[in-house]
Amino acid sequence: MNTNSTPMITSLLNDLQSSDMVLVTYKTKTGTTRVMGCTKMLSAVPEELHEGRFDRQLNREDIVCVYDYQNSAWRSFRHDSVISYTVQE
User: Fold this and answer.
1) Which of these, 58, 60, 14, lies nearest to 40 by C-alpha position?
2) pLDDT digit string (tens) for 23-71?
3) Interior angle at CA 23, CA 11 and CA 72, nearest 5
4) The domain that contains 11 carries what CATH number?
5) With contact defined as beta carbons under 8 Å apart, do 77 and 71 qualify?
6) Do the Cβ atoms of 9 and 61 come closer than 8 Å?
7) Exposed, middle or buried: residue 51 (CB in 10 Å: 0-12, 13-18, 19+)?
8) Could you tell me if residue 27 is inside a domain?
9) In-domain check, residue 17
């Protein structure tokens, strides 16, 4: 884990590993604010999409790779782009 992670990012990474749905609000590279429903729990991801999630580019210390429910695909965001998040029950 990135040693520059804030307590919120550390908490987010833990929740992504243990929750089926996390809504992450973040800024895209273009400056747009986006909300993404996502997870890192493989049990919540279709089995045919388990492969390919560990692309080297997406697993740098400052980037989080997650399964995006809306796009049914793996997506990523930077730690420093996260504005807030909530765990959905």
Assistant:
1) 14
2) 999 999 999 999 999 999 989 988 888 876 655 555 578 888 899 999 9
3) 120
4) 2.30.30
5) no
6) no
7) exposed
8) yes
9) yes
